[in-house]
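Deliverable D5.2: sample structural annotation.
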Amino acid sequence: MTLDSQISSLPGVGSRKTEALSEAGILTRADLLEYFPRRYLDRSTVTYTTDLRKDMDATVVGKVSGAQMRRGRKRSWFEMVVADERGFLKCRWFNGAHWIKKRFKKGDVVAVSGKVDFYGGFQMVHPDFDILSDEGTNPINTGIIVPLYRSGQKLQSAGLDSRGFRRLLRPLMEGIENKLSEYLPVDVMQQYGLIGIGEAIRAIHFPTDMDSLKQARQRLKFNELFFMQLLLAVRRQNQIEVTKQNRFDSYGEYLSSQYEKLPFELTAAQKRVMGEIWEDLKSAHPMNRLLQGDVGSGKTVVSLLAAAIAAGNGYQTAIMAPTEILAEQHFKNAVKFFEGTPIRVVLLTGSQTTAKKRDLRKALKEGYYHVAIGTHALIQAKVNFKNLQVVVIDEQHRFGVLQRGELLEKAGEADVLVMTATPIPRTLSMTIFGDLAVSILDELPAGRQKILTRKVDAHALPKVYEFIKDELKAGRQAFVVFPLIEESEKIDLEAATIGFENLKKLFPQFQVALLHGRMSSDEKDSIMQAFSLNEIQLLVSTTVIEVGIDIPNATVMLIENAERFGLAQLHQLRGRIGRGKYRGVCVLVHRKMSPDSIDRLGIMLETTDGFKIAEEDLRIRGAGDIFGTRQSGLPALKIANILFDGAILKDARRAAFDLIKKDPHLRQGIHAGIRQIILDKYSEFSTMAGIG
């Protein structure tokens, strides 16, 4: 039997176990080897019962000294007593009590983990548990390191708790160092201090000590991040190898006049980035650049100046935005920007009539329009350009690597500028945008004032409303934003509507309007137009205003139920105000606070630095929640964590990019193993990287 053999070929794995393992993604023996423990028990991770404290998270190891079903007036529950050599702990299960009861018998050595409560003695409700009896002795007395595996009800019902997984894995460890061929070059392993792959697999499942476990984790994390970065390195290499047919010999006839028309001086950062973009445009190879800039740092101006260079050289530009409202904002900015020049701009969105779209597509194909702005409608099969050369993708993280690829198929040699107003921590940037060169707009235009941020509870609202009235009387404008999430959209929309009606009564002398995502584009446009002309003084809105709306006269942003927003969202919303000559004030109104929301709102009070906020957002939510695998178009991580493994990520990236520099197509015999792993394990991503 080989490691590629089906899991059912393992002794003791019948149809029930096979089905449960299959649902967990374990189809072969190799998959089982990569089902890594979620954590480990050793002396340092176990708490004695006498050291327990209320509300602490703890793991207790002991023997089951008693277990029984108990019945109350309304419900029954299962109660088990775990005793170590110093005391005891009660464990209670209310959900699935009868199933849990069958899992234990008196005398079992168990590990229970969870939050400690105190109710006539220390207890845990619904703790995670593992039965350790087959280890022979209590790990707290022996120093043994016991691996614990993820195991849901279906796996446990099939006898696959942590103990069951250890029984399956033990026979596979025999001669594992010879069964697994080493594929990393010796020089890479030496440079980064890595142990062999067979040794790492043995130690991750059955570590002899904490040092061997640490070395195993480092090697396996490096593996995951190395192959992820390798895909990006090959993709980058493919881009470098492309030679553009369309070349830029000069700035063209429009750049100078557009630059002179600007009502402000570009910041030093904007000038630096324009220089980097020009170097890319005149290069023989396509530009692939990420432009990161905080809210209001002037990314739009940079992209339109790039479009002016393209038009002056006889080429078309496509600007792609994630939402219609943002596409419309870009369109209006571009029309205003190119006013008085021969540069023609067109908007293409999904909500336009079929006839209108057909006419616009025809004009685009004939080259009538120089700049096309739109949503994903731009990448539909029917849309063709005469000579598209510059592609600008705004808020790229909402599209993902694979969608970016679809757009580039329309112009394989296009110069691509990816823009985001969401500051991205360095480790995430290396992962999500690892195939792009990076430019950062790290200064705000002159005259932008620092925004004051205040946190209040609902009782302080009358004072806040008085402050808003004073601002409106002085001729300024304000936003009031209500949360809106998909799961509770109807309730949230009702809350925003009720809030709007109340505010109309509270501000009778001012024009108050409601804006939300269910309105038609025309309705939204009309409201935003009136707001930008100060015909509306107070705009009540859901988060449709999060990106793309620029009202220099708006000075107050009141965010209702601020605890329900993510940090990045709060930062984006705050960036909508204080964009003119008056100071902005952001008021965060909270009602039901959790420890996480206290943390989030506290960070908003501490800083307006988008990159610091992004780092904190990553710490609180974790990378998976910010950019999921589906969005990033990259493989999921089983053991590495972008948040905590930044140092390993940097090493893996350096190793991957160095390797591709030496052997761009992985054709050398020494790299055959790496190439085969990409084709076998990462086949769905290898086409993205151009490996095949």
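Annotation notes: DSSP finds 28 helices and 21 strands in the chain. The radius of gyration is 30 Å.
The annotation will be released with the project's public dataset once the embargo ends.
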